[in-house]
Automatic annotation (TrEMBL):
Name this protein carries in UniProt: Probable membrane transporter protein
TM regions (residue ranges): 78-99, 106-125, 145-173, 185-201, 207-228, 235-253
Signal peptide range in chain numbering: none
InterPro entries for this protein: TM_pro_TauE-like, TSUP
Domain of life assignment: Bacteria
Localization in the cell: Cell membrane
Membrane topology category: Multi-pass membrane protein
Alphabetical keyword list: Cell membrane, Membrane, Transmembrane, Transmembrane helix, Transport
Family according to the record: Belongs to the 4-toluene sulfonate uptake permease (TSUP) (TC 2.A.102) family.
Main location: membrane
């Protein structure tokens, strides 16, 4: 779907991937940058969504690798939530492929807006939730339901999935936020793995775009991690929020 006769489209996607990786490293929600970038170079919404979902996989793998020291001691929690995430992602992917594309075209503007608003209230939620380590045991049934629903969302659309997951984990799991953030990376990777398998078999993935975006998100994430201490997270967060809201409103009115 990328016109190789238009080099600007390739450059645009390369820059979008780098920025998305950096935003993921600092504030999260980088997929909300890639989705409108794909729309901007001519992708229809469904193809942009599935291509974006597949292209995010290497970034999630890198996140798990970088946070591996925070995972020991969470074996049981990882096992049960990973099953819930895999099942939920499978349901979301199935809904995306089975339902008419007109349903996705109607729903995706609302999902983009909701994902953007979720990013906007993320800091407020963290303040309201407080430190999960100060509370009691995991509320496992509620945790599994929340992870399953988040994964359904991730399999169907996936923008700001990490923000949705960390909110759910913070509400229902008892641990330090840095360890829950590592678990969020594992669950994001599980969701992404299911989407890669399902979409590779039955969705209009543009593999050239994936080949461009996947390595650039990795590089962007690495660079973003290096400069994260110097970059104002609030500024990045609100830039992504405003962009997401603008894209959602534009999709609503077109």
């Amino acid at each position: 779907m990328i016109d190789l006769s238009q080099p600007w489209a390739l450059v645009f996607l390369l820059v979008a991937g780098l920025l998305a990786g950096a935003v993921n490293a600092v504030a999260g929600g980088g997929s909300l940058l890639v989705f409108p970038a794909l729309l901007g170079v001519g992708f229809p919404p469904l193809a942009a969504n599935v291509t974006n979902s597949v292209a995010q996989w290497p970034g999630y793998a890198g996140l798990v690798l970088g946070a591996r020291r925070e995972l020991p001691g969470q074996g049981r929690r990882i096992a049960v939530t990973a099953v819930a995430a895999a099942l939920g992602s499978g349901v979301g992917c199935t809904l995306l492929l089975v339902l008419p594309s007109s349903v996705f075209d109607a729903v995706v503007p609302v999902l983009v807006i909701l994902a953007s608003l979720t990013m906007a209230v993320g800091p407020w939620l963290k303040r309201r939730i407080g430190d999960p380590a100060a509370r009691g045991r995991d509320r496992t049934p509620a945790l599994l339901v929340a992870v399953f629903l988040a994964a359904v969302y991730g399999g169907y659309f996936g923008g700001a999935l990490g923000v949705v997951l960390i909110s759910a984990l913070s509400l229902f799991a008892h641990d330090e936020l840095r360890r829950l953030n590592a678990l969020k990376g594992v669950l994001s990777l599980v969701v992404a793995t299911v989407t890669v398998v399902v979409f590779a078999l039955g969705a209009p993935v543009d593999w050239l775009a994936v080949a461009l975006l996947a390595p650039t998100t990795l590089v962007g994430g690495y660079v973003g991690a290096l400069v994260a201490r110097r970059m104002p997270e609030t500024l990045l967060r609100w830039a992504v929020v405003l962009l997401g809201l603008a894209v959602g409103v534009a999709l609503l009115v077109t």
